[in-house]
Design a protein that fits this description.
This protein has 264 residues and is mainly alpha-helical. Helix 2 packs across helix 3, helix 5 crosses helix 6 and helix 8 packs antiparallel against helix 9.
Length: 264
C-alpha cells in the first residue's frame, strides 16, 4: 500500500472514531506512518480533507449526507424525548440510528450541538409558517378570535402527548448551557426569529392593521416572551396553569394592546 492509500485509509478509520474537528494532519500521519507534511500536501487544507472524505463516503454508501443527517436528527428526537436532555447520550442516538459513532460525530460534534440543531429545525419550521399565520390573523374579519385560535393551536401542540416533552426539553437545554459556541448559536437563531417577526409586524403596521404606537422589534420580543413564558409556567405548575382556559384572556390582552388605532 503506497503512502496515498495509507493516508486515505487512516483518514476514514479516524473519522469512524472521532469528530472531524478532532482529526488533525498529525493524527492521520501517525496512523498512516507518514510525515504530517505529506498529509497536508495530499489534502491541501483541513476543509478540503473533510470535503474529500464526505464526497467519497457518498459514493461508497449510496446515500446523501443530508439523508444521514436527517436520520440522526430523527433518532435524536426520539432519544431526547425518552430520556430527557441530561439523560440522553450520543451512544443511544448511535444505536437507535443504526450508525457508527463516527458517522454521528461527523455531522454533530457534541450532544449540545445535536440538540441545538433540533431546536434550530423547530425554529425554522415556526418561521416558515409565521408570515401566513400572522397575516391570516390580522386580515380576518374577527382578528381577536383568529388570534385566540392561533394561540390555542400553539398551546394544543404543547399538550399533545407526542409533543409536550419538547418545551420541557428546550428549557432543560437552555438552562444548562455554558458552552460559548452553543450560546452564540442560540443567540443568532433567536435574533433571526425576532427580526423576521418584527418585519412582519412592521408590514402590518404600514397597512394600518395594528397600532403604530408600539415599536415592532419590542412587540416581536414581547409576543414571543409572553407565549414562551406561559408555556414555562405551565411546565412548572400544570395544576395551576391551564393553557386552554387562559387562552381567551390572553388573546384579549394581546389584541387590546396591539389593535389598530381606529379599531372600535
Amino acid at each position: 500500500m503506497n503512502s496515498q492509500d495509507r493516508i486515505i485509509k487512516a483518514s476514514y478509520d479516524l473519522a469512524m472514531q472521532y469528530p472531524v474537528d478532532k482529526i488533525t494532519f498529525a493524527k492521520i500521519a501517525d496512523a498512516a506512518d507518514v510525515h504530517w507534511t505529506t498529509v497536508k500536501r495530499y489534502f491541501g487544507s483541513k476543509d478540503e480533507m473533510k470535503k474529500v472524505l464526505m464526497n467519497d463516503n457518498l459514493d461508497r454508501n449510496g446515500i446523501t449526507h443530508q439523508d444521514t443527517r436527517t436520520k440522526i436528527l430523527e433518532s435524536a428526537s426520539v432519544i431526547f424525548a425518552k430520556h430527557g436532555y441530561e439523560g440522553a447520550t450520543l451512544d443511544q442516538v448511535v444505536e437507535h440510528a443504526g450508525m457508527t459513532k463516527g458517522a454521528v460525530y461527523w455531522h454533530f460534534s457534541s450532544k449540545a450541538n445535536l440538540f441545538y440543531e433540533l431546536t434550530n429545525k423547530s425554529l425554522k419550521q415556526l418561521l416558515n409558517g409565521l408570515p401566513e399565520s400572522l397575516h391570516a390573523v390580522f386580515h380576518s374579519v374577527e382578528p381577536k378570535e383568529a388570534m385566540k385560535n392561533l394561540l390555542l393551536m400553539q398551546f394544543n401542540d404543547c399538550l399533545d402527548d407526542e409533543k409536550n416533552k419538547q418545551p420541557l426539553l428546550f428549557f432543560e437545554f437552555i438552562s444548562n448551557r455554558r458552552e460559548s459556541g452553543i450560546k452564540d448559536q442560540l443567540d443568532h437563531s433567536f435574533k433571526h426569529l425576532f427580526h423576521v417577526t418584527s418585519n412582519i409586524l412592521e408590514e402590518l403596521k404600514q397597512k394600518n392593521l395594528l397600532t403604530k404606537n408600539i415599536d415592532s422589534t419590542s412587540l416581536s420580543i414581547a409576543l414571543h416572551a409572553l407565549i414562551n413564558g406561559l408555556v414555562l409556567m405551565w411546565i412548572i405548575s400544570p395544576s395551576s396553569v391551564s393553557l386552554t382556559n387562559i387562552v381567551d384572556d390572553v388573546s384579549k390582552l394581546i389584541w387590546d394592546g396591539i389593535k389598530p388605532d381606529l379599531y372600535p
